[in-house]
Structure prediction request, 714 residues.
Amino acid sequence: MRKIKIGIDVGGTFTHAVAVNVDDFSIVGKACVPTTHTSRQGVAEGVVSSMLTLIKESDILPQEVILIAHSTTQATNALLEGDVAKVGIVAFGKGVEGAVAKRQAYLNDIFLAPGKLLPVFFTYVNTASEVTREQLKEVVTDLKSQGAEVMVATEAFGPDDNRHEKLLVEVAEEMGFMATAACELSQLYGIKVRTRTAIVNASMMPKMIETANLTEEAVRQSGIKAPLMVMRSDGGIMDITEMRKRPILTMLSGPAAGVAAALMYARISDGIFVEVGGTSTDISVIKNGMPQVKTAQIGNNRLSVKTIDVRTIGVAGGSIPRIGNNKVIDVGPRSAHIANLAYSAYSELDDFSDIEIEKIQPREGDPSDYLKLKKSEGDFTITPSAASYYLGLVKETGHGEANLKAVKSAIENVAGKLSMKPEELAEAILGNTSRKVEKIIKSLIREYKLDKDFVVLYGGGGGASAIVPHAAGHMGMKHDIARDAEVISAIGAAMGMIRDTVEKSIFNPTENDIIKIRQQASESVISMGAKPETVEVHVEIDNANKKVVAIATGSSDLAARDTAKDLSEHGLKSIAAKALKIENGSLETYGKTNLLSVVGFKKNINHFFGLMKEVQQQVVIISHDGTIKRKFDNVNLRNCAIGQVKTHITELIEELRSYGDGGELMPDIYVVVSGKIVDMSGLMELSQILSLVEFDLKDLDQEENAIVVALKKR
Prediction:
C-alpha cells in the first residue's frame, strides 16, 4: 500500500492540494480550487474542497494517507483586516517588580494595519496575598463588562513561576473564554514583548479555532485518520491541536511552505527563492542549506515569534498595469481577479481588435488609472503573464498554457491604442516588475553577504514564469523554475518537518540547563508525532541577550530515509557539484553514514600576493536521496566511531580555536551520525559541547561510524 502525504496551500487567489508518495517523492496528483475568502466557513471550505477533489481525481484511498498538512493565510489576513477578538489583559505581580509589571504590561490598543487597531483592556492583580479562583472570576467578569472577548495572563517572572498565569487561563476557560498564558508562548524575560505576543495570539484564537474545527471535522468525515498538521511561519509544521493554542505561529505560513519545498523538493542549497502568485511575490534567501529566519513584527512592535525572512511585493503574474500619458507608469498592486477583470492571455477569444481602453479604480482608495480592456464579451486586462508570453520568456507553463493568439492580439491592439510598439509595451510592463524585484534582491544580497555572481534566482508559484525570467535577465543573473512550480507551496506543506522552538532566559547556563531545554524541545516535536529517531535539535546560547534557544525538528515517518531509494554515488556527486558550483569529477566523498554522506573538494587560497597559501575544504552534507542538509565553506573533518567522537571534538577545538577582538573564537561543531546532524554550532564552551554530544549519542551503537565536522571561524 502506498504512503501518501497531502499538502494544501491557501493562496490569495487559489488553494492548491497535492499528494506526494513518500517512498520516492513522486507527485500522485494535484487539485486546485478558488480560495474561499468570502465563504461563511472562510478558507477552511477551500482547504477541504481541494483535498476532497484531490482524493477523488487521484483515486487515493483514505488508509493510504499518512499525513495532511496545510498552510494558511488566515492569521495574517485576520491581522491585516482587523478581524480579531478584543483582549482582556490580567497582569500579576507584587512589590517593586509588580509595579514594573503593571506599567509594562499596560499596553495601548495595538496597531495592526492602517485603520485597524486591536482593542485591549487591562487589570492588575496583586499577588502579595494568595490569589483565589473566586477573585479571578471577578476579574474576568469585570474585563468582560469592559468589552473583552478573550483573556491573556502575564507576570513579570512568569517563565520562572507560571502558577498565576495558568490559573487565570483555567478559570477563564471554565467561564467559556479562550485564553493565553504568556509563558506558553515565550519563556524569555521582558514582560512587554511577551505580553504583546500573547495579546496577538489570543486575539486570533476564535477565528483560527473555528477554522481548525471545521477543517478537522471535514477531514475525519472523509474517512482519513491521519494526523492533521498546519504550516508554521518558521518553515516547520505543527499538529492542529497545538495550533489551537498558538495560532500566532502560523503567521506567514504560506511563504514558509514555499521555502520548505525549495529546500526539500527542489533541493536548493543556496539561492534566492522567488515565489510568484497572482497578486503578490514572496522573496526569501536560502543559504548553506538553511532558510533565513527573523523575529516577527506587527507594525513596529516586536513579537516573541520567529518567521522565515520573507519580503513581499505587490506585483505578480496577475497584476494590472497602470496607464498615464500613453505609458505604463506602474504595475500592481491590484490584480485582475480583485478588479473582476478576466485575463486576456487565458481567454478563449482570439481577437482583441475591437477593444476599448478604459482606466478604472478597482477598489475605493485605489488610483483610478488601472488598465481595463472593454469588449462586448466582457472586461479583460493584460498582465505580466501576457507580457512574458509575448516576449517568449515562458518555458514552464504551470497551470496551463496561455492562448498565444489572444496574447498576441491583446498586446498588439493595446500597444496600438497607446502609440507604442508591442515589444515596447511588453518590455515596459516587465521592466516595471523587474525593477521592484531588483530592489529586494539587492537588499537581500547585501544583508546576507551573498555573492551576486553566483546567486541563482529560483522561481516557484503559478506566476513564476511571468516574473522570474525577465527579472534575472534584467539583473544579469541565472535563474531556474522549480518543477511543479504551481503547487510548490502545497508540496512544502506535505514535506514539512515537525518543528518547535523553545527559548528561555538563563544567566550562565550550565550543562544541565542546556540538556534540559534540549529535551523540552525534543519532547515537544515527539508529542506532535515526530519519530524519536528522526529528531534533530540545535541549541544556541545567546550571551548578549542572556538566553538559550533550542530548535527541534523531526519527521512523522521514516519512509524518506528508506535506503532502497538511495541515489548512486555519482548521482549524489552530481547534486553536490551543483551546490558547490564545481565540476563533478573534482569531488571526493570524505565520510559516510548509513543515510548521509559528506562530499566536497579542497581548493588553494592565496593571500598577500601568493606569499601565503591556505587550503580550504568545502563540503556539503547530503542525504542519500539527494537532499542537501548543510553546506560549509571551510571545514576540518574526522571520521571515527561514535565512541571516539568526544576525543576528536576536543582535538579539533584545540587545533582550530582562535582569538579576536571579542575574545576566544570557537569553531562550530557538527556530528554526522546515522540520518542526523547533531548541531552544536551555538555552544560556546567545550564542556557544554561534550555534555550535549554525550547526551545525544549515548543510546547509539558506539562502533557505528560518525563524521565530526569543525567549521573554522574568522
Observations:
- The two ends are 52 Å apart (CA to CA).
